[in-house]
Amino acid sequence: MSKEAPNQKNVIFDEIVVDRRSHRRFWQEFPAKDDIKSIIDAGLHAPYAAASVGSTNDYFRRFFVLKMGSKCMTTAASLIFEEVSTMASKLEISMENDTQLREKAIGFANRLAMIKKLGKVPGVGTAPYFIVVAEKKGFPAVEQQSLAHCLENMWLKATALNLGFQLVSATAQMADNPEFCVMLGINPGEWALNGCAVGYPADELSPSILPSVDEVTRWLE
Length: 221
What we know:
4 strands
């Protein structure tokens, strides 16, 4: 193997990391099925908490692809929006008599209120594909950390394919929802969930503005 190969890989990786963005507007054109499969394959290769999951007959990680305009997408959009609306109402009631909670949660509450006003959860039905990722629950509960690794890989792969990617964190709230889980074909409460939207980006986003490594790093001796 030539000495240039590792350097070339490093350059390409840096480009992908720098180019990665969270997209919120997508064209309706569907990406190739093979591209979606390669994104899922990248997620499948992500680390997982093997010691927490233990031995199981079911594979610890599952993927569910919902297509814009499909019956399942319509059902998912309705169920997730209903869940977010309920969450928003409960949080607003809790904040009424808890000033400390209001101070901490006001930003999140405003985002939930915006979704309620919008009438839909961004990423669910607003992009060609909505992908739900499920991770088998174990002890200790580190499923969401494993899902974060999985989605990170998927995000980087989507970027490499020049596809837009949007995290749909509200998916995590659906893990105990019977109707949603039945639609996926899994048992409620047995799997942690998260999700993302994928499609061709409708906007060209500006570069991220970040501090330098030296500004945020302390070397300890």
